Amino acid sequence: MGLVSYTLNGAMDELCALQAGLSIASPRAEIKKVWPLPPSAKMLNDTPCFINFPRLLPVTFRGNGLLYRDYEVRMQLFCPNLSTEAMAMAYLFEEELIRALCVSVSLNGNVTNVATLEGEAGRLEWGGKAYAGIDYRLVFHMAEPQVMGP
Description:
STM4215-like; alpha+beta; two-stranded antiparallel sheet; 2 helices; six-stranded mixed beta sheet
């Protein structure tokens, strides 16, 4: 059996696939677009959508031969407009997001585990337009064996 090797690209691909697969029944809606990195687009024509902003947290080198990398992904869920109905839609998508993360806590083997998810609901802006949405912070861990020197 080979060593586990995690990559940010693999984790982000799986996270984006998970986001793209979210849908709600009432009102009937699905995620129309997912950006793994912030788009250059000034307007968001396809909503509801997610925009992701990954960042590396401190890397920990331990004497036990494991390298610990943690990443935080700021995930912004944008719903069609700034209204009570759009905010209600965002809350329904949040329930589906939590369920999906419970099913794939390792992002299909691309991370050791998803550690935390937190978010703040309210007004989000993109390209000068206001949207209802949720600004999330998702943290995941990658722990993998490494050959370390003295």
